[in-house]
Amino acid sequence: MNFLIPANSKKSMMIFGLFYPFDLILFGSGVGVTLLLMMILPIANTAMAFIAIAPAVITGFLVFPVPNYHNVLTVIIGVWNFFTTRQKFVWKGWCILDEEKQEDKK
Question: Among 25, 61, 78, 94, fewest CB within 10 Å belongs to which?
């Protein structure tokens, strides 16, 4: 009873094999805000230009694919959850008797 699960089975649920719909909505909203800022702000100096393109750059960074993770936003959420939630690891140990007890319950 061996099961073979392909390594990329989750990629079929993504758009282009890289992005979830939320990622594209997030990036699209960042690009939209950037376009609005470019029309509203005077892009005469470098500081205003950086302010205008900041939303697209930040959201692009958040949805950028990272090896072994979906994207940078996933990494940040994982790190945030790790440091802000209570970590409780119950040590059960390894014991052959535990396996027998589980088999008896079935």
Answer: 94
Q: What is the pLDDT of residues 1-24, one digit of tens each?
A: 666 666 666 667 777 777 888 889
Angle at 21 between CA 50 and CA 27, to 5 degrees: 5
| Burial 2-36, CB ≥16 within 10 A → b, else e | eeeeeeeeeeeeeeeeebbeebeebbeebeebbee
Query: Would you give the DSSP letter of residue 13?
Result: G
Q: How far apart are CA 19 and CA 2, in angstroms?
A: 31
Residue in the structure block whose two tokens are 């960042």: 30
Distance between CA atoms of residues 81 and 48, nearest Å: 35
Q: Are 27 and 21 in contact (CB under 8 A)?
A: no
CB atoms within 10 A of CB 72: 15
Q: pTM of the full predicted structure?
A: 0.63
